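User: Round two. Same drill as before: sequence, then structure, for each protein.

Assistant: Same drill it is. First protein:
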Amino acid sequence: MNVSECPTIVQKERKGIAAMRKLHYFWTFPVALLIRLISPLVLVKTVGIRSGYIGHFISESSEQIHLKESRRQMRRYGRQNTLRLYYFRTTPTINSFLELKVRERLRITQFAKFLAEAQDKLPNSDRYKGISTANAGRFLGKINGDLKGKFIYSPDENENARNWLRGIGWKDGQPIICLLVRDSAFYNYGEFSKDSSWKFTEYRDSNIENYIPGIEFLLSKNFFVLRMGQIMNQPLSVSNTAFFDYAFSSQKSPFMDVWLFSNCQGIISTGTGPDLLGPINEIPMLMLNALPLYGIWSFAKALWFPKHLTHKFSGEKLTLREHLDSAFSKMEEYTESDVEIEELTSSQIEEACIEYFEIFFMNPGQIVNRSEKQKAFWEIFKNDSRFSIDHCTVHPQSILGESWLKLQNQNFLE
């Protein structure tokens, strides 16, 4: 199957959905009841994969592929009496090429979705559902690097991608950095586009102009930098043939959207969706202006630089414990708590890029020598009662930015 076939699959499936939905209650309820009757012998579960946003789509697909492959290995040691039926929760999906990759590994049917809807109307429905981990980091932390859910690319796909890169100025062997900086245009894309209520996550937006000095530093180190994104507010002007503003290119494609994040040598992100392909493929991450600090990617090879948080009336920076208390998911929560948010400056972002380069590219694979402040941060965080809710083991190369730590007040770790 090739990439061009995927839209055809989607179109055929869509045509059948409307007609099937009118009839599905007549046959899915009897099937759901039958499933309950045979459950002592074979347990049939429906598994829905969130597919309306790219981050959910990546993490849940990868997890379900991993679990399927793990179960396949376990069958050697005993009989498995559970049958899983997979479906996409949102159609069409957010990325047709990723859909193709998932379909190559999981049997996706609309029947499973209709069956899940019927199960929801019957008692004890949770027993007949397979659910992905809500927190992708917790799942990746648990498997500790032994991921069987990577998306596999064919030799032809890899060569097509390299040919495309050569066409925009990339040279064979040149390391690639994908830069993804979320801004307010995010709210015009995806499942919740045009929904103003979704703007509660605006604390995650950043000004792309502040990233130019960091980009220029990486270009000076012979990286090829692609500014990524589906819909962005403004193009970025960087006068260098090794920089490409993919976000504003007419050559964007679902294929390259996914392939680049899976096969680059480094990812710089503010924490939004496609960057999850980094830890899945063990690519070193630089997370900039990332909030909350509580959400640090402890499961990944990642350097984390949060935005600065200060008390509105005193102007004092928050301590670590106050940061942990401010693990908010909505902008209004910061406002109601009188916490002000300040982006990293352009010079701070440049320093972060230098630190990223020195840790992950100057001496790749070398064990990072952690400062006393770094050790103290992790000690306090791991002993906090909330740590175990969303975190597991800490990756040896998960790091809170050292230059960011130096900017905090003396009482930060108290």
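Second protein:
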Amino acid sequence: MKEKHIKKNIKVTPVMQQYWEAKSSYPNSIMLFRMGDFYETFEKDAEITSDVLGIALTKRANGAASSVPLAGFPYHALDQYLYKLLKAGYRVAICEQVEDPKHSKGIVKREVVEIVSPGTTISENFLDNNLNNYLCCAFHGGTFIGVTFLDHSTGEFFSNQVLPDDFNNIIFKYDVSEILILESQKEIFSKYYSTKNLVTNLIPDWVGTFDYTNEILCNHFNVKSMKGFGFNKDSFSIISSGIIIHYIKENYKNRIHHINHLKYLSSDNAMKLDYSTIRNLELFKSLLNNSQQGTLLSIIDKTVTSSGSRLLKNWITRPLISKKLINKRLNHLEDFFNDYEFMMKTRTDLKKTYDIKRIISKISCNKANPTDISNLSSSLKFLDSFKKNIPNHAINIKTLIKSMSDNQKIISLIDKTLV
């Protein structure tokens, strides 16, 4: 309060006054403040940015007030430097010029257009193509904990309730980069060692109510109730899932159309693997050096696409125990193994495709470029071609993809637009 009072009563430049007004709404984020061809940071943000990015820390004159620390970089290098700030565990608020300086009267209008954090970024520089990047939310309801995971870069969104004793295990199972918890539950979750090294963001308690979170989920999915998704109205998963949608809406200004389904993460048909089992069996990381070399995944992962690699890891994380589901999966594989030529052609063609889920996420967030759109068209063409060329004997695969929609309209639209 004292700091705000001083800044309000001393003479400062209009730009710094504008910066402070914007920064006051995002005190826990590093603010990248667009000034012409540069993103600038000031004060404590500048000191952190200079240290993390290895760029010069200078000072900016501030009218009658003393000069303030300053560090900046060219706007075209945003992805490169944003990646480093996210890797260091910081949230970043991007404040852009939202009007043409040539037409502005007085100081250029600026607004925060996006909040980026380790668990919400869709930047290719930050993401590992073969790994999911999960944002997690946990709500402690006493007897159960509602736990929800969202990969904003693919739209994968799933949730469940777990016993408090199982919380550490479920967090360690997934590639979590950031966790959301209510302000009043900070102390409760600080006792779980699985959260120690995660970027943690505190959410106001008013967000974590059944009524609000249920309403925000129903509005987002355009339904009257979440029962059709497999969730009871009093499930703690409703709260943890609703908090995530609230958080993404706030940070990405409602650009979340690619999140179109919430999956109930049932444990009825999957084996429960605890953290110790996953670690000691070296399923994903070596006990020797914490790398992937020599692990089960590194040996059996012969997939040719990044989405396939991510799916395989998820299958290993939750092995099926239902004989019916196991046989169903094996039947699909059998169609390929019974036709070597079909299998090899499919693998060859898949190598020419791109990550459809992550491209769609970029489109939803207004981050896609012409190359992304062209790659989407190429990948959709493969799907249509694959569907038409499935051998008649591959009955199981035909059944699997018979519900896949015809992509010809969107392919034609993309190709005509990019000509």
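Residues 1-6 have pLDDT under 50 and may be disordered.

User: Perfect.
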